Amino acid sequence: MSTTTAIPVTNRPARRSGQARTAYLLVWIFLLANAVILQIMFADPSRPANNTLTAIGRFFGLYLGFTLVVQLLLIGRVPFLERRIGMDKLTNWHRWTGFAIFWLVVLHPTFVLLGYSELDRISFFAEIPNLAKQMPVLLGMIAAALIGLMALTSVRMARRRMSYEAWHATHLVVYVMIVLAVIHQIYEGSSIASSSVTQAYWWALWAFAIGSLLVNRLFVPMVRNARHQLRVVAVVPETDTAVSVYVGGRQLDRMRARPGQFFWWRFPGHASWWQVNPWSLSAAPDGRTLRLTAKAIGSTSAGLRDLPVGTKVYAEGPYGALTTAARTRDNTLLIAGGIGITPIRALLEDPDLTGDVVVLYRARTPADAVLAGELRNLVQARGARLHLLTGRTTDGNQPFSPESLRGLVPDIAERDVYLCGPGAMATTVQRSLRALRVPARQRHIEAFRLGV
Fold first, then answer.
1. What's a GO cellular component annotated to this UniProt protein (predicted)?
2. Is the Cβ–Cβ distance between 333 and 409 less than 8 Å?
3. pTM of structure
4. How far apart are CA 235 and CA 237, in angstroms?
5. Which residues of 381-407 are buried (b: 16+ CB within 10 A; e: fewer)?
6. Are 314 and 4 within 8 A, CB to CB?
């Protein structure tokens, strides 16, 4: 499906607003302020530990509880963070926070068990069933086992062997784990219960995290979907493996979606309720329809080709910081890999994308270049330049090496660089951009990474 679109180019350059800096600053203030409060709670003399080992266990337990709160906020899809920091960075934070939780889960019970085994004068392993007789402790142990399961499925080798749908279903147990962890803290959190002030702080913190999750992932999407009544209005195959889905509804202009953003999409009645995928808009929103284009990778994306017209659509969003609001320079370089062309193609329709524009599109073969016809028309209408980079990556074909990028775009350090593509490609490009001294504020990246 190829169309020629006239791009209304404005004369006002879009400049970085400073919203991202504000978001980073608030995140650091939140983390540092809570770290200070946790240290005060740990040092409270009114709740002395039984011995040094249990004191260390309590220390790790406090930070484990707080890290769980942070993880809950990260999976809560807080629009303030999604739109200013971006999905790519938040997914990285989610991943590293998950590994921090795993090690805290190892350290917290280990030191508690060592401390009580010393007090009870029994072995470490004998202390495990001894403490497990207490229901709150047993629930904590179950929560720890669930965290271990999620950590195993997050290891790179395991992720590669699992479909996105299977990985996502496994990580739904995070909600069970959180319930068990909260119950465990209610009954076993001695530092938390040291005073009414610490209790109020701790449960206000959890209320904030759980409230953010419920509001952003349940209540707001329910209200928006009830208002917009989204339905599939057309399904258009683009290649043998890619398909575009056009979604219509009421008052879509009130969604305030921007080119470069994405939604989390569900198709109730066509796929299981828990199957949700983040797909970018592949065309600029026009107030009448939204379009997503997906490649058949998992079972949900492969099934899009068979969606009946009229199928109900449930969407969460819009999210993402890959928009012209992040621009800092007049000229722009857009880089896409595979199906990552979708937000890049939408950005080409954004009237705020002014100045000289260069597009680098990486595809295995020309036939694999999804939306290539539309892309050429948009580039021609805008007076931009398109480089289609094909072929297998070999020693002689390194399209994203510093030398190749400089050869294609000599003034790359003077441009904003937008990138959407697979994680490995994003890592390579970022390494080259650093070597070419492209400032971090000019790099705007969304990579394909697993997220919940």
1. membrane
2. yes
3. 0.78
4. 7
5. ebebebeebeeebeeeeebbbbeebee
6. no
